[in-house]
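Standup notes, structure subgroup. Blocker cleared on the DLZ input:
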Amino acid sequence: MTGRLIFVLGDQLSRGLSALADIDPSQDVVLMVEVREEGTYVPHHKQKIAFLLSAMRHFADDLRAEGLRVDYVRLDDPDNTHSFTGELARAVARHKPQSVIVTRPGEWRVGVMVATWSELLGVSVAMREDTRFFCSVEDFAALTARGKTKRMENFYREMRRRTGFLMAAGKPIGGKWNYDAENRKALPKGHKLPKRKRFAPDAITRDVMALVEAQFPDHFGDLARFGWPVTRAEALQALDDFITHALPQFGDWQDAMKTGENFLYHALLSPALNVGLLTAAEVCEAAEAAYEAGHVPLNAAEGFIRQILGWREFVRGLYWTEMPAYGQTNALKATRPLPEFYWSGQTKMHCIAEVVRGTRQNAYAHHIQRLMVTGNFALLAGIAPAEIEAWYLAVYADAFDWVELPNTHGMVAHADGGRLGSKPYAASAAYIGRMSDYCRGCRYDAKARTGANACPFNYLYWNFLIAHRDTFGANPRMALPYKALDRFDKAEQAAIRAAAEDFLAKMHTPEGVPPAQMSLGDW
Ligand code: FAD
Ligand code: DLZ
Ligand code: SF4
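Run returned:
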C-alpha cells in the first residue's frame, strides 16, 4: 500500500509544484503518464508533442535522482489506455494509494476530468491550487469585481504595485507605467540580428522524436529543427542567453517581422515557462536585475515584464474566472471554415506563407506574426472562432488552452465582444508593410485597395469595417478608420465589398485556382 499518489501532468514540471510540496519519499509515489488523448484532442505539432514528452521524461529522471519514486507510463506501453482517467485508474489499482493529489490543471477540459475521479475511482482526490502564478484566481476575481482592473493595463499597474517590479517609493521607475510608444520600430535594412541559442536534441529527445514520427505521422510540423530547452538546466541557459543577447533590444524591435527570420529579439521562453521549467517570478527578476545592472534599457525591461506580469497573468485570470462561458461566445458571428493554407502555407499572400513556414519549422511564431498576420487575416475573413482556436492550440509549442484561448478568442477574433480588447486588432496591408519586409516579396500590391492585384488584406479590412459598422461605428478607438472609410465614394465601397465577397467565396482553393489546375507556380 502506497501513501499518496501524486499525479503530475505534462505542464506541471516544476519542483516547486504544490502537489509535490510535502512529498514523503518513503511512502508517496509520483505518477506521470504519456497518453495519446493529450496528443490528439487537437492534432498537435510534432515538435510540441516531442517537447512535452522529452521534458516529462527528463523531469521524471530528475525526481528519481532526488530519491523519489516515480511511476512513469510511456506512450508505447502496450497496456496504456491513452487517457488521463484510464491511466490514473490503472495506477490506483497498482498502488492502492490512501489518496490522490493533483495540482489544478491548466485547462478547463482537464479540470472537468479531475472532478469525476474521486467518485469514479473510489479514492479521495485532493486538488491543490497552482501557485506558480503571481495572481491567484481568487485575487483576480476580487480585483475584477472592483471594476477598475477589468482591463489589462490597470491590472498590470496593480500587479506592479503588489510585486514591486520596477517600482520606487510606490511609483513606476522612470515616471511612466508603459513605454510602448518607443517599442514599435521596424528593422532597418542591413540590421544584424543576434544568433539565438538553440538546444541540440539529446538521446532522450531523439528517442521521443522517433516515437512521435511513428505515432503521429500525419500531424502538422517538422521535427528537423527541434531546438527547445527540455530540462530546467537548459531552460536557465535559455533565459540567460535571452537576457544577455536579446533583451537589451527586445523593446525596440518587438513588433518587427522579417522574411526568413523567426526569432528576432523575442524571448523564446514560453514553452519552458508554460510547462513549468521556469517560473514567471524568476524570469521577471532576471529582467529587472539586468535593468538595475545597467545592461538593459527601461523600455525593454518594462515591455518584457509587462508581457509576463501583465498579459500572461491577465489572460490566465480571465480564463479561470470566465470559463466555460468565455469560450462559447461568437460576438461577430463569424462562421467560415479555416482555409487549407493555414496548414499548407500555399498561398500567394507572402506574409501568411512566411508565418506558416516558420510555424511548421519551429512550432513558433512571435506575437505580432500570430496577432497581425494569421490572426488579423482570420478576423477580417470571418473565420469561426472555434476553427481559429483549434489551429493555434495545435501548432505552437507553447499552446495551452488557458493562454491560447483568450489570446485567440478575445484578442484575435473579438468573439468575446471586447472583454479582452477594447477594439479589434484589424489592420490593412499598410501595417504589415510598415512592420515587415513581407510586402516587397509578394505577388499582391500592398498599396492597391481593389483591382486584380490588390492585397486581400486591404479590401478585407475595409469590408470588415463596412460589415461591422453597427458594432464598431460608435467606438471612439475606431473613429479614425471610420472617418477614412467615409471618404470613399459609394462606387469604391461597392468595389471593396465585391472584391471581398469574391475572394472569400474562392479562398478555399488557392485564391481561386480550381484544385485540378493547381501547380506550385500558382501559389
Ligand atoms: P516574447 O514575445 O519574448 O514575450 C515574453 C513572454 O511574455 C512570453 O514568453 C510569454 O510568456 C509572455 N507573453 C507575451 N505576450 C503574451 C500574451 N499575449 N499572453 C500571454 N503571455 C504572453 N502565448 C502562449 O504562451 N501560449 C499560447 O498558446 C499563445 N497563443 C497565442 C495566440 C495568439 C492568437 C496570440 C496573438 C498570442 C498568443 N500567445 C500565446 C502570446 C504570445 O504570442 C506568446 O506568448 C509569445 O509569442 C511567446 O514567445 P516568446 O517567449 O518569444 O515571447
Ligand atoms: C500537450 C500534452 C501532450 C501532447 N501530451 C501529454 C501527455 O502525454 N501527458 C501529459 O501529462 N500531458 C501531456 N500534454 C500536456 C497536457 O495536455 C496538459 O498537462 C493539460 O492539458 C493541462 O491541463
Ligand atoms: Fe501580405 Fe498583402 Fe503584404 Fe502580400 S501585400 S505580404 S498579402 S500584406
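Discussed briefly. The first strand starts at residue 4 and ends at 7.
Next: hand off to the docking folks.
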